[in-house]
Amino acid sequence: SVPSSLRVNAVSAGPIATLSARGGIPQFVPLQTSVSNASPLGRPVTAEEVAQAIVGISENAGITGQTIYVDGGYSSMVPTPPLDSVG
């Protein structure tokens, strides 16, 4: 039997600003530019922002069964099919 206090959540990270993504590796500069231009935030998220989301959902006992998207807004740009068309 599963304890009633068990919580399951997920954090889905988008492009993350790493050394290579910040231009530290020249061959990744075009990719960085492309990601920045496509993101509603205008930049990739940072590892710290992803970590903050993880800490936030782990500290809040009222959040369960959720996926938290830390993706700079990419997921908001994907059309969601109407519920009656699923399945």
What's the total helix number? 3
Q: Care to count the β-strands? A: 2
Strand % is: 5-15%
Low-confidence stretches: none
- Describe the biggest sheet? 2 strands, parallel
**Tell me, what's the shape?**
flat
Oligomer: single chain
Helix content class: 25-40%
Distance between the termini: 29 Å
The secondary structure category is alpha+beta
Helix/strand order: EHHHE
Q: Would you tell me the overall average pLDDT?
A: 82
Q: Main sheet: which strands, in order across?
A: 1-2
Compute the gyration radius: what is it?
Answer: 17 Å
Question: What would the keywords be for this entry?
Answer:
two-stranded parallel sheet; 87 residues; flat; 32% helix; alpha+beta
Provide an overview of this structure.
The protein is α+β, with helices and mostly antiparallel strands. Helix content is 32%, strand content 9%. It is built from three helices and two strands. The chain has helices at 20-24, 29-38, 47-59, and strands at 10-13, 67-70. Strands 1-2 form a two-stranded parallel ribbon. It is flat.
Layout of helices and strands:
Elements: E1 10-13, H1 20-24, H2 29-38, H3 47-59, E2 67-70
Parallel strand pairs: 1-2
Q: Summary?
A:
This protein has 87 residues and is an alpha+beta fold. It contains three helices and two strands.
